[in-house]
Design goal:
Strand content of chain A: over 45%
Oligomer: heterodimer
Number of strands of chain A: 13
Shape of chain B: globular
Helix content of chain A: under 10%
Distance between the termini of chain A: 39 Å
Number of helices of chain A: 0
Number of strands of chain B: 11
Radius of gyration of chain B: 13 Å
Strand content of chain B: over 45%
Shape of chain A: globular
Chain lengths: 125, 109
């Protein structure tokens, strides 16, 4: 059974960089069939896709966050990571890592089928 | 960016009754739409993809329909465990990205 687990600081100061890691177990992050993504949810609000990465290192970012986001992958550790720079209180949220598919037999599979439990990151001094 | 709009924001339903949730896209997403269920303190769970295909292990009382810009999630007979928030997500516009609706909370009437 595939499992994803987020880890990282729960408190980040304004203007600093938020850094989270997602560890994947029960499957290989190097599978050619899947992408690995980050989604966030401010308290009491909806879901926002942050970005995704393919095992090869190709990245795709939400245009609204692109200037501040970096997602990377470490296939040797079966992990991928998120960095969000210049954070403000508006970046306070539960951050989820998740898996989605790509394209198979002309069918788009970019929906999230496995999710981590989420980790709350608070931006405050 | 494709904007996803869900309605209503809150739906009050009695157990055993039918619930109908709507999701509208600002432009056509074909059938590239998914539905998720989220309970308090939990991660979202995939219910439906391809607008109408149930994910593994999802009960038959959940059904999805629609294509283009108008989509519906129907829960035929609400069980106690179905009271939650439901989100739609389009994945037709890749790249640049994926967008979610604002959610519909299904609460006990």
């Amino acid at each position: 059974q595939l499992q994803l687990q987020e880890s990282g600081p729960g408190l980040v100061k304004p203007s600093e960089t938020l850094s989270l890691t997602c560890t994947v177990s029960g499957g290989s992050i190097s599978s050619s069939s899947y992408y690995w993504g980050w989604i966030r949810q401010p308290p009491g609000k909806g879901l926002e896709w942050i970005g995704s990465i393919y095992y090869s290192g190709s990245t795709y970012y939400n245009p609204s966050l692109k200037s501040r986001v970096t997602i990377s992958v470490d296939t040797s550790k079966n992990q991928f990571s998120l960095k969000l720079s210049s954070v403000t209180a508006a970046d306070t949220a539960v951050y989820y890592c998740a898996r989605h598919g790509g394209v198979r037999w002309l069918q788009l599979l970019y929906y999230f089928d496995y999710w981590g439990q989420g980790t709350l990151v608070t931006v405050s001094s | 960016e494709i904007v996803m709009t869900q309605s209503p924001a809150t739906l009050s339903v009695s157990p055993g009754e039918r619930a109908t949730l709507s999701c509208r896209a600002s432009q056509s997403v074909s059938s590239n739409l998914a539905w998720y269920q989220q309970k308090p303190g939990q991660a979202p769970r995939l219910l439906i993809y391809g607008a109408s295909t149930r994910a593994t292990g999802i009960p038959a009382r959940f059904s999805g329909s629609g294509s283009g810009t108008e989509f519906t999630l129907t829960i035929s007979s609400l069980q106690s465990e179905d009271f939650a928030v439901y989100y739609c997500q389009q994945y037709n516009n890749w790249p640049p990205g994926l967008t979610f609706g604002g959610g519909t909370k299904v609460e006990i009437k």
